[in-house]
Amino acid sequence: MSKGTLLYAQSGGVTAVINATASAVIQAARGRKVKVLAARNGILGALREDLVDTSRESPAAIRALAHTPGGAFGSCRYKLKSLEEDQPKYQRLLDVFDAHDVRWFLYNGGNDSADTALKLSRMAAATGYPLTCIGVPKTVDNDLVVTDCCPGFGSAAKYTAVSVAEAALDVAAMADTSTKVFVYEVMGRHAGWLAAAAGLAATGKDAAPQVILFPEVAYDEAKFLARVQDVVKKVGWCVVVVSEGIRHADGRFVADAGAGKDAFGHSQLGGVGPLVAATVKDKLGLKVHWTVPDYLQRSARHLASKTDLEHALAVGQAAVDYALEGRNGVMPVIVRTSHKPYRWKVEAAPVARIANREKTMPKGFIDRSGYGITAACRQYLEPLVRGEAPPPYRPDGLPDYVRLKLSTVAKKLPPYG
Question: Which of 6, 90, 187, 350 has the most crowded CB, counting CB atoms within 10 A?
Fold first, then answer.
């Protein structure tokens, strides 16, 4: 066994393939004879010294993580402040790392997790503690900069496009005597990538979704209602896909719940889907149904994209390689080298270039109407949802997802807090 321990943790909203990254990390480290601990519930597990001994898990269980959704080790929404403001917490982390001989820390998450990885890498450099910190990409929002796409997005995008296509067939069948407008809300606070993915369902003129509301385009209620009315008059029905983060022209969230901030400092949003549906019903007098898939869009492992799974596995393998090479403060990112045929590779990028930045939809990806996607957007999205990677199924017909033992190591320090 190599000297030193690798600590892995998951953060933020989980995805259909984040456990595939965990699987790749643990298998790669085992292949290098490196001990792997996992922090329960992200960085909180490190602070609490609540650490899982992955060596107690069988090889078969670790392999099965690759087809199991959720976050096997638990995740969290918790953001460390600056080194000066949260000095006691950073010292606690150093104490925990030292107590368990942690020399490599891999933090698997999105924007705020990249920020934590950056701060920890700087902490290590400032204190002289021999720690290599690697950020590992994951988010269904697809809003990390530098990387071409984010593991987790492709599967959520596939789920969104398939769900919208299927729901549209339902609406079309019933529109004569029932629902005229169907509203489908997707995740995406500032970036409309998932909303755009719904556009893949449209296979021809007037095909659903006929209206997509992006966070990047200011919401104009009168213009929106006129668009819906025109579509219903022409087609007989209309499917609207709305991103949770759409804003008014003055920058206010349409669905701002007025409930303060979440753990990451983001505004708490209400349900924009039902709000938009109510607007259509009240102003146009049309029968409306709405849905908010919420966790379903990020946990649907049965409909995962094969491309997405391959991305998730690749960044996990690369993260271990970078860590053991001592490349502190980097993240494995996906680089697209060709559209047709789709080709890609993984490269290291400084976390400092990624943390606290967001990748929104380019103007060239949204059509002139502001309610649809362009050919360029479709060319970008299509490879990411390609391929099937179904989980194995049990005799009872349900997916055979793994549950780990999650055996913890003995604590060596006083309780946290």
Answer: 6
Say whether pTM exceeds 0.70: yes
- Least confidently predicted of 21-30, 114-123, 190-199: 114-123
Q: What pLDDT, in 10s, does the model give residues 65-74?
A: 999 999 999 9
> Tokens 């213009």 sit at which residue?
223
Active site residues: 141
pLDDT at 58 over 50: yes
Across 320-328, average pLDDT = 97
Mean pLDDT, residues 22-41 taken together: 98
